[in-house]
Design a protein that fits this description.
The complex is a heterodimer.
Chain A: H1 3-25, H2 28-45, H3 47-60, E1 64-68, H4 71-82, E2 87-90, H5 94-98, H6 101-107, E3 111-114, H7 117-125, H8 141-152, H9 162-179, E4 182-185, E5 189-191, E6 197-201, H10 205-211, E7 215-221, E8 225-226, H11 229-242, E9 250-254, E10 276-282, H12 286-289, H13 312-317, E11 322-323, E12 326-327, H14 328-339, H15 343-346, H16 353-357, H17 364-382
Parallel strand pairs in A: 1-10, 2-3, 2-4, 4-7, 5-8, 7-10
Antiparallel strand pairs in A: 5-6, 6-9, 11-12
Helix pairs in contact in A: 2-11, 8-9, 14-17
Chain B: H1 2-13, H2 22-25, E1 37-40, H3 44-47, H4 50-61, H5 68-73, H6 78-97, H7 114-118, H8 122-138, E2 143-146, H9 149-157, E3 167-170, E4 185-189, H10 192-197, H11 201-211, E5 214-215, H12 239-254, E6 260-262, H13 265-271, E7 277-279, H14 280-283
Parallel strand pairs in B: 1-2, 2-3, 4-5, 4-6, 6-7
The chains are: A alpha/beta, B alpha/beta.
The structure holds iron/sulfur cluster.
Iron/sulfur cluster (SF4) binds at residues 242, 301-307, 329-330, 357-360, 362, 364 of chain A.
Chain lengths: 383, 285
């Protein structure tokens, strides 16, 4: 068995039964998922209206909101806020990866650190992530020992336990959190009515990235907008449950810069946390896709990663299926949406497991069938 | 372009690749020709073992100006063809025993177009669906009994492209109950299409369950949304991937039982490379 085969088998055995158990133990989650699907569809059908509403809401609560049509614009906006020679801590974000943000900010002379443990390992190894919520699932414990030894230059025993490995990274990153000038995160959901963003996490790194540095920047695709604050909370709940991590250790909510109402109940910003909050909304192909009746379904994805672990193609190809960070069945859809790459879709065997397990009820095989058709159509027009 | 080539072959040979049509029809001897209800093989069982051979040709297919010469040369082995015929004959016999009346189109039987659909050649599939639908209507066909999931699925998708209003039914839906020809435990490898797209998973399971064999199940191997594909549909695009999926699938199934039963000729062909595989129509009567 290859290292990938071992790692993915362990992951499937740990995760798949746990999600089934969560869904039967907390039966309300499936109803919430249905409600969320409806709310997200409402946004996709009126995307422009909701983008405008979100930007107004963010400004109303003392934040700054930006709209970027492509990754270059988005990077420029962020680079301007960050500046040079800064310490930047990143919370895991597929959109940040999509725009090559880490490398870009480093090129500008900043010190940039991933703070999600898996993504941190990916950064050290200089490899693409293999799964959307567990980016380093292709690495065995043995491999992590070697990596930390080589890249951090610290003593790590051959037999170090999982706990010891986590402690080593914790010690290393703690100092970065405290000294960081800017925290950059993604967003699991953005509430159009209040301008709040929701982040679901377990490690505590998001809390620290969003609260310790004086500036917090959130980057997200426009499809992350939901109509209301209530729906944003639903998204956090559903995402965590279908990812197999329910209840999530933390749900982090940010509505503008830090604030207090302690003197005469007047709300004043900032307080102890960040004095600046910025939200960068990214299109990069999403708006066009929202206009296609079949493909638009892909934008409902809440990045729970469940489809990956039920897919025979992902089981065999892993990170080699899709354009990172977009791997697996969802990645075969998203590789086309953001990179225009139709090839991953052509490798779908339409086993259909993905559509059965997707909390958003996305008919993934149908979306991929349409992408295959687009690829064939392009080919046809060439010949 | 692969889609164009397949479409041309369909016009020339009545099949996605060059083939001698007698391979498709020789299993049937005493079935009346035509009629309102037909058994429809789409030549899937008869040629399943050839999908491997032809997937090897695909990278070169577009360079070959004419494949006609291959038609006479490439045939399933005697053993493979006899087995496929026995399966079809048993299906036909089981139906007859239960009083189901049906005809067969012999060399006029068209291919369903499933491969075009599965490779995403939706325009070609739609065009072809119209041709086949017109043909069925011309023949006065009102009801089609399918024997494999790919054909069944393709026919049901016709209505997205044309006015297809013919009843489509899987043969095992007409069986009522069956008796097992083997004893002991078996594991079912579900067809992805039957199980997750066509809602028939429970139909053949309950037939098997009441036939006298014992089905071994495992939540992570045979569950509705955990059981893996055999890799067959991806073979024309990526042979290596298809084979790896098949090998992995056989390993999973073997852990549950040595007797692996399938309900699809493509699953049969793809998994057979790694283990002895039994078709549903071989284990019941
Ligand atoms: S496509 Fe569905 S199952 Fe897959 S990651 Fe997205 S929401 Fe989860």
């Amino acid at each position: 068995m290859s290292e990938w085969d071992i790692a993915v088998e362990r992951t499937i055995n740990n995760n798949v039964p746990r999600v089934y158990k969560t869904l039967s133990q907390y039966p309300y989650i499936q109803d919430l998922a249905k409600e969320l699907r409806k709310a997200k569809l409402e946004v996709l059908n009126n995307l422009q209206k909701y983008v405008e509403q979100t930007m107004e809401s963010v400004k109303r609560i003392g934040g700054n909101a930006y709209y970027a049509t492509n990754v270059y614009e988005a990077r420029e906006i962020i680079a301007k806020i960050v500046g040079k020679n800064k310490i930047v801590v990143l919370g895991k974000s597929m959109v940040a990866y999509e725009m090559g943000l880490r490398e870009y900010l480093k090129e500008l002379g900043n010190e940039v650190w991933e703070t999600d443990l898996g993504e941190f390992l990916i950064q050290l190894a200089n490899e693409p992530p293999s799964h959307i919520i567990a980016p380093a699932i292709h690495m065995t414990r043995e491999r992590v020992v070697k990596l930390l030894r080589e890249k951090l230059g610290v003593e790590v025993s051959e037999n170090a336990t999982h706990e010891e490995l986590v402690a080593i990274v914790r010690k290393f990153l703690r100092e970065k959190f405290v000294r960081a000038d800017v925290g950059i995160t993604g967003a699991n959901a953005i509430a159009a009515d209040t301008g709040s963003i929701i982040l679901v996490e377990n490690e505590g790194n998001i809390r620290m990235s969003t609260v310790l540095p004086p500036v917090h920047i959130a980057v997200a695709g426009v499809e992350k907008i939901v109509p209301t604050f209530y729906h944003a909370l639903l998204e956090a709940t559903v995402q965590a449950a279908y990812a197999g991590l329910y209840p999530p250790t933390y749900i982090n909510l940010t509505s503008g810069p830090s604030s207090t109402g302690d003197i005469e109940m007047k709300r004043v910003r900032p307080a102890h946390g960040p004095k600046e909050f910025h939200l960068v909304l990214l299109d990069n192909g999403r708006v066009k896709i929202s206009q296609d009746e079949v493909l638009k379904e892909a934008l409902l994805c809440i990045r729970c990663g469940r489809c990956h672990l039920h897919c025979p193609v992902y089981r065999v190809l892993g990170v080699n299926w899709g354009v990172p960070p977009f791997t697996g069945p969802m990645g075969a859809m998203w590789s086309y949406i953001v990179y225009g790459d139709t090839k991953p879709a052509t490798l779908c065997t339409h086993s259909g497991n993905c559509k059965e397990v997707c909390p958003m009820g996305i008919n993934i095989p149908r979306v991929l069938e349409k992408i295959k058709w687009i690829a064939n159509d392009k080919e046809r027009n060439k010949t | 372009m692969l889609g164009k080539l397949i479409f041309q072959n369909l016009q020339k040979f009545g099949f996605p690749y060059p083939i001698d049509k007698s391979v498709c029809t020789s299993w049937a001897k005493d079935i009346p020709r035509g009629g309102e209800t037909i058994i429809y093989t789409s030549c899937m069982y008869q040629t399943a073992s050839l999908s491997d051979v032809f997937s090897k040709f695909i990278p070169y297919a577009e360079k070959l100006s004419s494949l006609s010469a291959l038609a006479k040369l490439i045939k399933p082995s005697k053993e493979e063809i006899e087995r496929a015929y026995r399966i079809l004959q048993n299906i036909s016999l089981m139906l007859k025993r239960r009083g189901v009346q049906f005809g067969y189109l012999y060399e006029d039987e068209p291919y369903s177009g499933a491969i075009l659909l599965e490779l995403g050649y939706l325009d070609e599939f739609g065009e072809y669906a119209k041709i086949v639908t017109d043909f069925f209507k011309q023949k006065g066909i009102k009801r089609i009994i399918t024997v494999d999931p790919h054909t069944h699925n393709a026919l049901l998708r016709y209505k997205e492209f044309t006015n297809f209003d013919i009843e489509v039914v899987s043969y095992f839906e007409l069986l009522g109950n069956v008796k097992a020809r083997i004893q002991g435990e078996i594991v079912v490898h579900d067809s992805c299409l039957y199980s997750r797209f066509l809602g028939k998973r429970e139909v053949y399971r309950s037939l098997l369950n009441s036939s006298g064999v014992k089905l071994v199940e495992d939540e992570l191997v045979t569950g509705k949304d955990t059981s893996y594909c055999c890799g067959g549909p991806i073979k024309p695009v990526n042979r290596e991937l298809s084979e790896k999926i098949a090998r992995l699938r056989v390993e999973q199934l073997k852990r549950l039982s040595e007797n692996i039963v399938v309900v699809c000729p493509m699953c049969y062909a793809n998994l057979s490379k790694y283990h002895k595989i039994l078709d549903f129509a071989e284990v019941v009567e």
